[in-house]
Design goal:
The complex is a heterodimer. Chain A is mainly alpha-helical. Chain A folds into two domains: about 5-55; about 60-85 and about 145-355, MetI-like (MetI-like fold). Chain A is built from 15 helices and no strands. Chain A has helices at about 15-20, 25-55, 75-85, 90-105, 115-125, 125-135, 155-180, 185-200, 200-215, 225-250, 255-260, 265-280, 285-295, 310-315, 325-355. In chain A, helix 7 (about 155-180) packs across helix 13. The longest helix of chain A has 30 residues, at about 325-355. Chain A is globular and about 70 Å long. In chain A, about 30% of the residues are buried. The mean pLDDT of chain A is about 85. Chain B is an alpha/beta fold. Chain B has helices at about 5, 10-20, 65-75, 95-105, 120-130, 135-150, 165-180, 195-210, 225-230, 245-250, 255-269, and strands spanning about 25-40, 40-50, 55-60, 80-85, 90, 105-110, 185-190, 215-220, 230-235, 240-245. In chain B, the strands form two sheets. Chain B has a six-stranded mixed β-sheet with strand order 6-7-8-3-9-10, sandwiched between helices. A four-stranded antiparallel β-sheet of chain B has the order 2-1-4-5. In chain B, about 45% of the residues are buried. The chains are: A mainly alpha, B alpha/beta. Chains A and B meet through helix 11 and helix 12 of A and helix 4, strand 6 and helix 5 of B.
């Protein structure tokens, strides 16, 4: 084979040419460019003034805020509460360790060539929750017990979301397989479970879990409100997850099942080695979508008296010692959620690229 | 697929009880009075066939004649409703252990290859030996490389199926089936989905395999292949076996009118 020496023609673009092509190609594009440009110029200036130039960063209490710009002082003063809730100050190192481990497990996932990053991820999904289970509530290994009623803030949000995500995926997989099972009882139970949980709003689930459930449970069998909320969130979420995964299972051609059957792989090996790896890869966008919405839905635990990051901010905003800081508080909450959701989203894109084997049958 | 609970259980008991009968049965595959329906539609009608060890059989017939359904019954990808199918002394029934035993001994090559796109060529070949036959990974890989060499694509071992041509994929599919060291190979129109220039490379591999003494059942329209390697050619139409003869007789002196008409159409172009 002879190597062709022809190169594709180069496209030379000067800034003027680029602008003419992309911004002013027609009269209505020109108009749009001018209008949008005007809006950007008029809004960015005041926004920067509010958020940065006129804002107050230093000080001790509300009187140090000038009121001309944002009062970020409010955030930095109450940050401890927003992150740890009522977790005792002297024990917060335990939560810090968990934050650190979380970073250790997941930061390598964003670095393409990080050695053994797979193992960090596996640690994040197995070791991390186990360590957290012992470290955060305490009560063993000479650690002082911290009641779950004292947990709050960002830490609580992360616990709810992390456990919810981690538990709902495998339950969702089993439900999806159950719904496609040829055994009528298993299929029936899966369908009923999915349809019941999916048809109920999360608020109702949380309310039921915290108020109604204790009434039905036998005397003495009563577990914490947080645990009940977690179970509610997980089951509710796994119903959604099941339907996302079912979509993936249905997209796998019949030939794949037949080839696995013909090779003598039994049901679980066929599913685990051939069907699920392909199906899950196909529905990564859907799974991540569900994770992100779960992450944000955890804010609903406010209704049963748990103080997640939004709850802590909201309760502080109404504090008479700080006035007119609602916007700053909500901006901070939005930023917290955005950071984590954006991280999840980037990670999933990373994963999709890595798993692409260039075959779309 | 049936009950996942019993699926993993041992099949040794089935095998040992079956091996006692070996002397009586000359055929490695015996099909007796087999019928199959799709709903009310009677697809396979009273099929009888005995295949001896090492025999090479080509099944042909017009589309919709039930030939693919027939060979798919032999490893229970399709279920028959009446009659008997006995493969290597194990009868195919609803018993999942029997089905697993048979599938381990019967390799299958599909029209559309059905390679696993998320695994490399080598992983495709090793998957079943490692997980079903419990062969150590090193050994399974070495054996897979031998088979890949036999189908003449050892250099593609670390690529994904999506990066290969159709002919190469089908040769990988053959190697993958052979890695389970089956006693019987089923081919379901292995060249029908290939571009003309790739058909030969697949047929060459199949001819080589036929020469090695493998028991083969091929559904194919490649009459040249039938003439070269088949011990018997079976012609099916309307769910029945219409004619069964050695290739020479089959092509030069077909007995049935339906066979003659089919041969006229297929050999005309």
């Amino acid at each position: 084979m002879t190597e062709s020496t022809m190169k594709p023609p180069k496209k030379a673009l000067t800034p003027v040419k680029w602008m003419r092509e992309h911004l002013f190609s027609t009269w209505y594009n020109s108009l749009l460019t001018v209008v949008v440009g005007y809006l950007v110029v008029t809004s960015v200036g005041p926004l920067l003034n509010w958020a940065l130039f006129d804002a107050n960063f230093q000080g001790a209490d509300a009187s140090d805020c000038s009121g001309a710009g944002a009062c970020w002082l409010f955030i930095s003063q109450r940050l401890n509460f927003f992150i740890y809730g009522f977790y005792p100050d002297e024990l917060q190192w335990r939560v810090d360790i968990m934050f650190l481990l979380l970073a250790v497990a997941f930061v390598p996932q964003f670095i393409e060539r990080f050695p053994g990053r797979k193992w960090f991820g596996i640690f994040g999904m197995t070791g991390l929750p186990v360590i957290g289970y012992f470290l955060i509530p305490g009560g063993n290994f000479g650690l002082e017990t911290v009641e779950s009623t004292k947990w709050g803030g960002l830490m609580l949000t992360l616990i709810l979301a992390y456990i919810g995500i981690l538990a709902s995926l495998p339950i969702g997989v089993l439900l999806a397989l159950g719904r496609r099972s040829e055994m009528p009882i298993i299929r029936g139970l899966s369908v009923v479970f999915i349809e019941v949980w999916r048809a109920v709003p999360l608020i109702t689930v949380l309310f039921m879990a915290s108020v109604m459930l204790p009434l039905f449970l036998p005397e003495g069998m009563n577990f914490e409100k947080l645990m009940r909320a977690l179970i509610g969130i997980t089951l509710w979420q796994s119903a959604y997850m099941a339907e996302v995964i079912r979509g993936g299972l249905q997209a796998i051609p019949r030939g794949q099942y037949e080839a696995a059957d013909a090779l003598g792989l039994g049901y679980w090996k066929k599913m685990g080695l051939v069907v699920l790896p392909q199906a899950l890869k196909l529905v990564i966008p859907g799974i991540v979508n569900t994770f992100i919405s779960l992450f944000k839905d955890t804010t609903l635990v406010l209704i049963i008296g748990l103080f997640d990051v939004l709850g802590t901010v909201q309760s502080t905003v109404t504090d008479p010692a700080w006035q007119n800081v609602a916007v700053e508080g909500y901006v901070f909450v939005a930023f917290c959620f955005w950071i984590f959701c954006f991280g999840i989203s980037r990670y999933s894109q990373n994963l999709e690229r890595k798993l692409d084997t260039g075959h779309k049958t | 697929m049936g009950n996942p609970m019993t699926e993993q259980t041992q099949t040794s008991e089935v095998k040992s009880s079956a091996q006692g009968e070996t002397g009586k049965n000359p055929g490695i595959i015996r099909v007796e009075g087999m019928h199959k329906w799709y709903g009310d539609f009677h697809v396979l009608k009273d099929l009888n066939l005995t295949v001896k060890q090492g025999e090479r059989i080509v099944i042909c017939g017009p589309s919709g004649s039930g030939k693919s359904t027939f060979i798919r019954c032999i490893n229970r990808l399709e279920e028959h409703q009446q009659g008997k199918i006995i493969v290597d002394n194990v009868e195919l029934t609803d018993d999942i252990r029997h089905i697993d035993t048979v599938r381990r001994e019967v390799g299958m090559v599909f029209q559309h290859f059905n390679l696993f796109p998320h695994l490399t060529v080598l992983e495709n070949c090793c998957l079943s030996p490692i997980w079903v036959r419990k062969v150590p990974r090193k050994e399974a890989e070495a054996s897979a490389m031998e088979y890949l060499e036999r189908v003449k694509i050892p250099d593609q071992a670390h690529k994904f199926p999506g990066q290969l041509s159709g002919g190469q994929q089908q040769r990988v599919a053959i190697a993958r089936a052979l890695c389970m060291k089956p006693k019987i190979m089923l081919f379901d129109e292995p060249t029908s989905a290939l571009d003309p220039e790739m058909i030969k490379e697949v047929l060459d591999v199949m001819i080589e395999l036929a020469g090695s003494g493998m028991t083969m059942l091929c559904v194919t329209h490649e009459m040249g292949f039938a003439k070269t390697v088949a011990d018997r050619v079976i012609f099916m139409d309307g769910g029945e076996i219409v004619e069964e003869a050695p290739p020479h007789d089959f092509f030069s002196n077909p007995q049935e009118a339906r066979t003659q008409q089919f041969l006229k159409q297929i050999l005309a172009h």
